[in-house]
Structure formats: C-alpha cells, structure tokens
Specification:
The protein is 37% helix and 16% strand. It has helices at 10-14, 29-37, 43-61, 69-84, 127-134, 177-184, 201-207, 241-251, 295-309, 320-345, 352-361, 366-382, 419-425, 428-433, 461-471, and strands at 64-67, 96-100, 138-143, 163-164, 167-171, 190-195, 210-213, 233-238, 282-287, 314-317, 392-396, 409-410, 417-418, 437-445, 448-456. A hairpin with a 2-residue loop joins strand 14 (437-445) and strand 15 (448-456). Helix 3 (43-61) runs antiparallel to helix 4, helix 10 (320-345) crosses helix 11 (352-361) and helix 10 (320-345) runs antiparallel to helix 12 (366-382).
C-alpha cells in the first residue's frame, strides 16, 4: 500500500564504510502520520520497513540489543485497527520506535549492555514507555547502550560496539549509542535515550541527528535503571527539532492531564506550519579556558549559527570548571555506590574499562560528594547570571568529530586529547544545572557530522527550538 518512495543517500549507499539508509531516513513524524491517516501506508507496513532496515543494516551498525518482531507487528496491527475504528491516539500513533536498553519495557530484556543482567526481563513498563504506548507508538526493540550507561563512547557493551552509520569505522558516541545510530540509519522514526552527562546529545551529535535533553524532572525516570539519580534524564533522538518536541509532549504528559513544555502548542505551531519565529536573544558561550578540541568544529558550528541568525555576541562563563568538577564527583559517587555490591561479588562480569572507571569513582569521598552537591545547589541558584542578557546560549555539542572505534585519545590539532573528557566537556554542565539542551546538526568536518548545542532555561524551550529549526527544519 505504501505509495511514497523510500529516500536514499547515494553517497552513503556507495560508501562501503557507511550504512545504507533505511526507510525512515529523511522522513519526519508529521509526514509519516499524514501518510497513515491518508491511507497511503499502514502501521504494519511501517513496522515491517523498520524490521527490514534493522535486518539489513543492523549487523553492521549494531544499534539493537533485542528486536521484538512479533510484539511490534501485533502492536502495529492493533494501531491499524484503532485508526480504522476512528480511535486516533495522536501523532505517534502507529510509528515504530526503539527504547534504550536502560529503560524497562514489559516482557523484554533490560540488560544495560552488561553480562550482570543477562536474562533480566522487565515485568512492567517504565513510566515513559507507558506514555508512549498510550500514544499508540510501536516498540520494535531495545537499543544498545554503553555498559550501564557509564561511558560516552558507546563501544563497551556485552552486545558489542555500536558503529556510526555515517562511517562504520567510527564510534557512534554514548551512552545512548543505539538510539542515535538507529535514527541516523533510518531504522525507526524516533528513539528514547537517557542522558546523565550528555548521553543523548553526544551520540546525536556524532551521528548527525537531533537530540533533546529536557529540563530536570520534565520526564519521569521511574522504571529507568539509574546511573546517577541526581543527574539522570530521559531524552529523545529524532530527525528534526519538531519531531523531538512532538515526542517530548507525549513523554512529559502528567497523569490525567496534558502538560506541554516547549512543544507544538507553546512553540506556536499549526499542524503544518513552521516553528515560531521568536528565537530570543542568542549568545555564544565562552570560557576562560576553552575545552580542548578541534578548532574547526567550533568554527563550523558558529558559522552555521551566524549564517542562520546573524552575528552572535560572546557570553563569558567563569563557572564551567566548577560545574564539570561537581558533575564528576556526583556522578562518580552515585554510580560507584549503585555498583558497590556487584563490584565486590562479580567484578569479572564487567567490561574491564567500565570496571576500572567504577573502581576509580569509588575514591570520591563523602566530603567531596557533599561539597559537590552544595556547589550544584549554588550554581543552580546563580544560573540566572548566564541568562541576564540572553534567552538561549549556543556552543558546540562536542568539540571533536566522531573518533575511530576504540580510540581513547585523539590529536586533531597536534595536541593529545582524552576522548572521554572531550566528549563530555560541553554537555555535562547542563545535567548539573538541570537545563534543557538541544543538539542540532550544524555541518561537517572531514565529512563527519558536527553539532550545535542550544541551552535555555525551563520555559524558554520554544525559543531554543525556533533557533534550532533554522538550522535543521
């Protein structure tokens, strides 16, 4: 029945080091929803397209830890029946999605990419999954994650490394590697990830899709395996800014009543109109000691921003280092405490690198942890100084392009840079502060995606989204 042709990317298809784009590449949630309601396709057909794309590129990209073909097709047929009977659950009704393997989906494994949880099957849905089901979304499977979400590279997992669809010799980023890679490869319409220090935005940036980390507590984390309870967020990977907001509106809905935060209604969207034109006052965030990286990345990203909106003034920030230090102490102390028993009883079940990092994190003293929490509280109180003259702050999402698989150091300008530090350097402060942040594709360097990060205060998401939309419609 499907009458609109799959999009293709000739360059990627011809490149043996790139994944062949799947059916959903270049297709938005709005386009898919319109085709469903016009009778040009069905949820069952869309789900079969997703399963076919996973089967074709999945072995090379390794974006899925578990695929539930039977359950997905049954849910799709149910979605089609409901639409046929006049029950329309909204824009996600009948659309295939993937859920990070840190988030419980009833009846499916939640292994967190670890041998420790082999055989663990979730009994109930996480709160965010319940909301997706109520919206009619079709869950095709669980996407890969860096083991226990404890790493930004996405290449340490019992399921193997996740590869970047844009260049299969490169890492996808992490920890929500599979979710970003699956969307980038066109396997699914959108995906859920988690973000503790950048784990939605980092792989979105490296793979060339939009990622959105909402404000602290905007989306419930009930039923999500924790890494750092203070810093954990649920976020969204999707092809466009509008798609991220559409999914966010579903995930942020309060029980019994709607709750929109920066979504379609708040952003001034008509069903087929563009985003609101008000981008607010934009500033380019600078630090006294800039994070190490490839200077071409920052230059490319800033050029894309200023091409879209004109000259953007600098905004000096002198607390970035304090923010990163607080992040390291809070995340390390909370992660090592969660894993203390496992580390003692079965250390051999961990990936060696993840185990070393957890053991090192155990050295965070109670005093340092308490001081970091105090610093966090003070920074949250003082964050208004960042927004005194600006509504949206702009900076690169990550200061380097996707490193080769397994790399732990890169030297883009002759200086050796630890990969983990670089990937987390510009994203982790916003988890400490609990601020909403988008990652938006903003060009390429050496053929690899680079991304702009847009940060705002809760309530100003519409302005950040309007700005993001100018770069990625």
């Amino acid at each position: 029945m499907t009458s609109f042709c799959p999009t293709t990317d000739a360059a990627a298809a011809a490149d043996p080091d790139a994944a062949v784009p799947g059916f959903f590449a270049g297709r938005t949630i709005s386009e898919l929803a319109t085709a469903l309601r016009a009778g040009r396709t069905t949820s069952a057909e869309l789900t079969r397209h997703a399963l076919d794309a996973i089967a074709e590129s999945g072995p090379r990209v390794n974006a899925f830890a578990h695929v539930d073909a039977a359950g997905a097709l049954a849910a799709a047929r149910q979605a089609d029946r409901e639409l046929g009977e006049g029950l329309d659950r909204g824009p996600l009704h009948g659309l295939p999605t993937g859920i990070k393997d840190m988030i419980d989906v009833a009846g499916l494994p939640t292994t967190a990419g670890s041998a420790h949880l082999a055989g663990r099957v979730a009994r109930t849905d996480a709160a965010c999954v319940r909301r997706l089901r109520r919206a009619g979304a079709v869950i095709v499977g669980k996407t890969t994650t860096h083991e226990f979400a404890y790493g930004p590279t996405g290449d340490r997992s019992v399921h193997g490394p996740t590869r970047n669809p844009r260049d299969l010799t490169r890492m996808a980023g992490g920890s929500s590697a599979g979710s970003a890679a699956a969307v980038a490869a066109g396997m699914i319409a959108f995906a859920l990830g988690t973000d503790t220090g950048g784990s939605v935005r980092i792989p979105s940036a490296l793979c060339g899709v939009v990622g959105f980390k909402p404000a602290d507590d905007a989306i419930p984390t009930d039923g999500v395996l924790p890494l750092s309870r203070t810093l954990d967020h649920v976020g969204v990977h999707a092809p466009t800014v509008r798609d991220c907001l559409t999914v966010h509106d579903v995930l942020a809905e309060r029980e019994g009543r709607g709750h929109r935060l920066g979504g379609a209604a708040d952003a001034g969207l008509a069903p087929d109109a563009g985003l609101a034109q008000d981008t607010g006052r934009v500033g380019w965030l600078t630090e006294e000691t800039p994070a190490a990286g490839d200077p071409r990345v920052a230059a490319t990203v800033r050029s894309a921003l200023e091409t879209a909106v004109g000259t953007v003034p600098d905004v000096a920030w002198r607390r970035a280092r304090a923010c990163r230090e607080a992040y390291s102490a809070i995340q390390g102390a909370e992660a090592s405490a969660l894993h203390a028993q496992r580390m003692e009883e079965a250390p051999g079940l961990y990936d060696e690198e993840v185990l070393r990092r957890l053991q090192a994190a155990s050295a965070v003293s109670p005093e340092r942890y308490a001081a970091a929490l105090d610093t966090r509280a003070a920074l949250i109180r003082a964050v208004g100084e960042l927004f005194g003259r600006h509504d949206v702050l702009a900076l690169p999402t990550v200061p380097i392009t996707a490193p080769p698989l397994g790399a732990r150091e890169v030297a883009p300008d002759g200086r050796v840079i630890p990969v983990r530090d670089a990937l987390l350097s510009l994203t982790s402060p916003w988890n400490v502060l609990g601020l909403p942040a988008f990652s938006v594709p903003a060009g390429t360097v050496d053929g690899l995606p680079v991304a702009l990060q847009l940060v705002c205060r809760p309530g100003d998401e519409a302005k950040a989204a309007a700005l993001a939309h100018r770069l990625t419609p």
